């Protein structure tokens, strides 16, 4: 079959193939389209050597280099044709046209449209017209990829605040799309989801020596938020300085400012990019990185003045109900009471906050090891996937294995993920950390690192 207005062929994925351009052209095209990698222009199947690797690269490029978010608008799969592997990219027509390369913005250099069998630059008048009429994306409008959602955790948190949820809470909290199905906000707040927030701890002042890699998630975002707050509160120890006149006790970080920073990074994170916020603890500082830039229409000066344009108004509503957020616009001013503007760094796709510690600390890790975790550590040999570990332990229930064995071992810093940025990857493997190896060698000894 030759190329058409809806079919594009690429012989291979190399540096000269502008995959973002082709995807954007189909996103902006009223019918969408399909791109095949591993087929030449005449329709002959060539195949590619590392189809899985190319598929992963393509997914990352689409997610990270195209704006607005194309989440839910594309699918990348590996197929076999004539005994050879190819990659098929299916692209739907987007509802937030014009889509563009983040690097170039809404310009003729960044926007493209499918014309015949080619991706052509979009004329500026068309760009302006599409932008003026597009429907902006939000977690309230995006359909959840799961519709079997439950909200028992959310009910408990509301009951604790004496605000019990009634039978209409899904509508009142705006957890439904206009079509009446669960949206992405509902997915984030549900008892189970695929979102996990990482809290990493390093021995020194760089990312060379990772000593803890904790993940809090796969549960209601409220529960994950509280877990992150508890973890950072645990790390925010009191440093004591004794002078000739007095004893001075001081926390490593101002607790009010850090709490506001944690909650702000989660509530205002751009979850449409499928990238959760990240927390990193170093010997001399803590770094908090959230996805997304300042909302359209909000300048840096407005931001520092406390002007608030909630990115995720559905989340903001719930966080305010549960008294995790006091009022709109209060977070940044509270942070600035203890730290200067220089702690904020605005990057192309992320916002990072860096808070220096009151003194350089030497991290210590003392894992709390349950019998199940000890049993898991004992069976480790080299690198294992989840199925192998469950089989060795004779466990059939996947969720029981994750909650009672795997996740506690990861939280204790005994096991590391081979693909830490994609915890739910089908290619995920697990290895023992140095601390895990110590425990395996001497399970009866209390290990401190």
Mean pLDDT: 87
Class based on secondary structure composition and strand pairing: alpha+beta
Which parts are unreliable, with pLDDT below 50 for 5 consecutive residues or more?
none
Number of strands: 18
What level of helicity do the residues show? 25-40%
Number of helices: 15
Gross geometry: globular
The description of the largest β-sheet is:
6 strands, mixed
Reading side by side through the largest sheet, how are the strands ordered? 10-9-13-14-16-15
Provide the β-strand percentage band.
Answer: 15-25%
Radius of gyration: 24 Å
> How widely separated are the two ends?
61 Å
Descriptive key words:
31% helix, 18 strands, alpha+beta
Write up what this structure looks like.
The chain is α+β, with helices and mostly antiparallel strands. It is 31% helix and 20% strand. The chain has 15 helices and 18 strands. It has helices at residues 19-28, 51-65, 124-133, 152-160, 169-172, 184-189, 221-235, 255-267, 300-304, 313-321, 331-336, 371-379, 386-393, 398-411, 434-441; strands at residues 7-10, 33-37, 66-67, 74-81, 84-91, 100-101, 112-115, 118-121, 196-202, 210-217, 238-242, 247-251, 278-281, 285-291, 344-346, 350-356, 415-417, 430-432. The strands form six sheets. A six-stranded mixed sheet has the order 10-9-13-14-16-15. A four-stranded mixed sheet has the order 1-2-5-4. Strand 9 (196-202) and strand 10 (210-217) form a beta hairpin. Helix 7 packs antiparallel against helix 8 (255-267) and helix 12 (371-379) crosses helix 14 (398-411). It starts with 6 loop residues before the first strand and ends in an 8-residue tail after the last helix. The relative contact order is 0.08. The model has no long low-confidence stretch (mean pLDDT 87).
